[in-house]
Each structure stands twice: as C-alpha cells, then as structure tokens.
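Ticket reopened. Same input as before:
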Amino acid sequence: MKTDFCFPLTSPIMNACGVMDTTWEELVALASSRLGAVVMKTATIRPREGNPTPRYARFKYGSIQAMGLPNLGYKAYIKFSEELKKFGKPVIASVFGFNLDEYEFLVSEFQKSEVSAIEVNVSCPNAGEGIPAYNTKYLDEVLSRVTSIGDKPIGLKLPPYLTEKDVKEVSSIIKKYNVSYITLVNSYPTGLVIGEDEKPLIVPRNGFGGIGGESLKPIALANVAMFGKSMKDVYIAGVGGISSGKDVLDFFLAGADVVQLGTVLKENGLSAISEIEREFMDLLRGRSIEEIKGKALG
Ligand code: SIN
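Engineering reply: fixed in the latest deploy. New output:
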C-alpha cells in the first residue's frame, strides 16, 4: 500500500499526534505496529504534566479533550528518535512553542536529530491564549522562523478552518515557505459535553475541550478538500474521526496523501489498524491510492 509522501512509506496510515505516543513504551508499540510512520507527542521545551484529570472523555459522537500538552520535553523525544531507528520506520517529531523563539529553537534542535520530518503544531487548543494558526500574522512569523533552518521536511498541523476564504488566506501564507506537508485537522477547538451528572465531562478549561472522533470527520474532510484545491504542491495528512476502511477511503477521495488514526487508537488500541487496513483494501477494489486521490470532487 505504498503512497507518495515527503519520505518513503510502506503504509499510508500513521498515528495522529497525541494518541499513545508520549512515553517510550507507547512509541515502541507504535513502531512495532503496522503503521507506516510514527508521530511522537508534541514536545515543548520543558516537560509538562498537562492539565488536571479527567481531561479526556468519550461521548456518543466522538471525543473531547483538554490534555494541555503533557509531554516529556524535547530532549526525551530527540533521544527516542535515535533509539526508534532500529524499527526501520520514519519517525516524525511534533513541536509547540509558546512564542516564536521557542518554535525556532525546537525546530532547530530536531533538525539535528534522527527524525524524518518535523510537524509544527500551530493548532493546540489547550495551550496558552488562542490558537496560533488562527492569527495569520503570527502564523506567517512562525513559518518564516522555522522553514529556514535545516533540510528535514517541515509539516504544519492546522486547526479546522470554517470557510474557503479562510483556507485561501492561510494557503497564500503557507505557499511563501518551504512547507512539505500539512496535517488536517487538529481537534475542533472548543466543544462542551455535559454528562449524566449535569456537569461537563472534563475538568480543565471550564469543561471546554477539543472535539475529535466521528463529529470531526466531515469538518476534516472539507478542510482536506479545500486545502487540496488551493495548494497543489503540498502533501496532505488527513486526520479526524477515522475508524473504518470507509473513513480512510473518504479521506483519499477528498485528496489526502496519507491518513492518521487518533481517537480509534485510544479507544480500540493497535488492533484497530489491521482491521481498518483490511476494510480499506477491500474498498480499493484493486485500484491504487493515486487513482482515487481527490476523485470525489472531480
Ligand atoms: C493537548 O495535549 O492539549 C492536545 C494537543 C493538540 O491538540 O495539539
């Protein structure tokens, strides 16, 4: 099931950043699985405990989370990237900076590491004020800092955008820089789910959290299709509510080059991968991924 991406892949299915990818044990499990590449948890400069629990919950139509970037700090992930080499799979770093200098520092450190690409997370809904990528001036500044250091491909993890006009504006900024791929989309930034006890399901952010899983899928598909139309030369990793072969098919039909599994891995574990893969192969009916890419929209 080979596909085109900014580095060779034996499978177009990866994990989504932030799911089962924080500790060494989790990363070894991902690296030993059928996934084509391993994305490590978003790293910050210093280790973070993240927000108080419960900070993740499942509900009827998806998941809600306000994790708060719990991670072991970038030095741990640089070391893990060296040790994960023996599994023979591309490893992708993800970074979040609380300001421009931090973004630049983190990218320059990972440029010296063993990772195959660096995904710049400008869409975490649970860290600081606002979503970096919704401030287009700031997004432009982040890109100008991080795309001029080193040769490793730079990816950009974006939040969901609402309209084609927003997508055109953001695309015109991204096109100015050497961005190899975009990951679409991070969780819908602000949702609220109320439980049987008449209280929000999660504690941080007054109960508000990023929405993933089933509810996110139509929004993610639209973003894949809109960005695919406005940026032809940038690879797209599609993510949001993929839990079956049909979901994978839909993302390719919308124009994705690879897909990432999030909530389904958290809920069903690694055994979900082979089932999704098998269902997808059946639905491909002998066609290549290239043949179906973007075909839903003509
Ligand atoms: C988090 O750790 O808060 C989630 C990360 C993200 O959505 O980027």
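The chain has one domain: 13-50+68-189+212-297. Residues 13-50+68-189+212-297 form a domain with the TIM Barrel fold (CATH 3.20.20.70). Please confirm and we'll close it.
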